[in-house]
Amino acid sequence: MNFFLDTSICIDVLRTRGAEKSFELFKSFEHTHSGYVSVITVAELSAGASLSSKRDAWKKTDALLAHVQVIDLTEPVAFEAGKIYADLSRTGKRIEFNDCLIAATATSIGINTIVTRNCDHFNRIADFTAVVPEEIDF
User: What are the two backbone dihedrals, phi and then psi, of residue 35, each rounded to the nearest 5 degrees?
Assistant: First the structure.
């Protein structure tokens, strides 16, 4: 099974005391399932590692990203993200633009469900579903 992950799930795994189900999901990428993230998530994780006072922050971030496939932004993804943002803004349901880019990246590879701790934002997007790791079987 393929799982597209939001930055929040990656942060769970980077934390010393993160959510156990997020750790299990990443572990499943070693044998059974495939994990994907947007290059936007890489940028967000890079910012966190750069701001961290922990000496091994970069090493942990690199090790985590080795378990997933990073999907780059393309011009069609950028256009789709802009449409998502505009649609949500018109209806008073606006979310952060980075989340729109992440969702558009997921749909560009045929995945309309994202694993996240921020379900409220992603569930505002038409034809898109957000779940927490505890809600999925893997």
Answer: -115, 145
What was the pLDDT predicted at 101? Answer: 98
Instruction: Please provide the DSSP assignment of 65-111 as one string.
Output: HTTSEEEPP-HHHHHHHHHHHHHHHHTT----HHHHHHHHHHHHTT-
Q: Which two tokens stand for residue 36?
A: 């994907």
Q: Do 6 and 25 contact (CB within 8 A), yes or no? A: no
Q: State pLDDT tens for residues 15-60.
A: 877 689 999 999 999 888 999 999 999 999 999 999 999 999 999 9
Full set of structural domains in the chain with CATH: 2-135 (3.40.50.1010)
